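WARN retry 2 of 3 for item q-0093 after timeout on previous attempt; input resubmitted unchanged.
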Amino acid sequence: MWIRSTRIYTEDGLLDGWIRIENGKIIQLGKGEKEDATNFGDLRVIPGIFDTHIHGTQGYTMWEEGEGGDIDFQLDGFLKGVASEGVTLVLPTLFSATGDGEGALDVLKKTADRVGKPQNGANVAGVHFEGPYLNRVGEKGIRPKTPAINLGFVRQAIEAGGGHLRLMGLAPELPQSYELIKLLTENGVMAAFTHSDCNSSQAFDAFDQGITVATHLCNVMKGIHHRDVGGLGASLLDERVSTELICDGLHVSNPMIEIVMRAKPHEKLMLISDCTGYSGAPSGTYCGFLGHSGEVIVDDLGFVREPGGRLRGSSKPVLYGIWNLVENIGLEIEDALRMAALVPARKYGFGDKKGSLRVGKDADFVVISDDYKALETYVEGRRVFERASEGDQIFNQQMLKHLLRSA
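OK item q-0093 returned
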């Protein structure tokens, strides 16, 4: 298989040329024309995105109560859905509505069972469990009861993951948090600083204990004050910590994104979506989906809020974040692509196979339009999404029964 484009974003720079693919691997790169190659003209060919924090998309969800079928049905739709957004590798992210209940373990196990198996969409790199031992809500949120860490449940989760639980988030100010960090890291699971009220001293102490990831930087953590730089400042300053960042311009304003980009080395920044099943949904008001008992509004821009204005997860894929970084903030696209693909691939141990277009790596790539839409997505040389033929078939239509009224 050969592909050709005037704009191929390789690990070594922009290439006007071609890629030769055999057995799912990139075996050769070259300049200029190539007869009989699949020619994408001037369309951009970018490395496949690795989204390490995403709960759902296109009406499918990692919640136990997803609409229209069991978790295998949800996973099938989810993996196809993220492929339609340029994602070729993913950490499906569990945020359990039942806390440390049995339902979460079942979802975790069935998701972990997909690792290493070709999918009709993005490949599964492992599982990200955001929580359940968290201690802060976002703006306009109602504070829940402080959770008690259950190390027995975490042992069950590690076992259910079968070696594929990659990341687990926690609030480090909770009692037994250090024991939890130790349990995770001793079993090969990275620990993340997540949904926390901790101050900067507590955050630095947690990093000393072994936390190496800051979940969706800026969101649901204490911000910077000149007498205490909070969890945000600690995450920016500590070189041991890799930080996730939602770049939709809403969860984090563009001026704040610029501050982060100047303060944190880009090899420690990973672009994420944090999307839910509302991503890609028609605008309107929904009720009774994704564990939300009240109403949720999807506006004309696709953003998701409660009637009181509180954000309810993200709705914009990483490709949208790349667009925002390049077109609104002025970042070089090569830099944005590295943070969306190669940086997370290296962080989670896939850097030798994934994250960039280079000889010897898997042929994971995406053909995108100039308005940053995925037109075709390839995983290990297999086309797993084509917008021209599948674009109208991706969204889970059964979710629409929760639509109360159109916008």
